[in-house]
Design brief:
The chain is mostly beta strands. The protein has a single domain, classed as Acid Proteases (Cathepsin D, subunit A, domain 1, Beta Barrel). It contains two helices and eight strands; from the N terminus they run ββββαββββα.
Length: 116
């Protein structure tokens, strides 16, 4: 899998997320090495995809504060195969966490437009 470093020097990967009705939707997500979950998506995108709510769980943010997140089940296309993952609702850009990256190598040339 490859991605790109954007103008803000963020490592990004385009993901395909499957809506409840089966329609695929492509999103761009930033790789966040400080996030140990799988994937975050904005609540409005989760609602439009019709993802199934699983639970609420507490998460620790980078500033040391805690927050309660709604967690949903989502299906993404990962490394060419469908994969069911936990998706946390967050009012921010989509993030790929280290839980999703587990078992993979991450190599980034931090130059805008460089492939990762």
């Amino acid at each position: 899998m490859t991605g790109i470093v954007n103008a803000a020097l963020e490592a990004t990967i385009n993901l395909i997320v499957q809506a409840a009705g089966g329609q695929p939707r492509q999103i761009e997500a930033v790789v966040d090495t400080g996030f140990n979950g799988f994937l975050t998506l904005p609540p409005d995108l989760i609602a439009s995809l019709g993802l199934t709510w699983l639970c609420r769980q507490q998460g620790l943010l980078a500033d040391g504060s805690t927050h309660i997140f709604d967690v949903y089940a989502g299906i993404i296309l990962w490394d060419g195969r469908p994969r069911t993952v936990e998706v946390e609702a967050a009012d921010a850009q989509p993030l790929i966490g280290m839980g999703l990256m587990q078992g993979y190598d991450l190599r980034v040339q931090v130059v805008p437009g460089a492939a990762i």
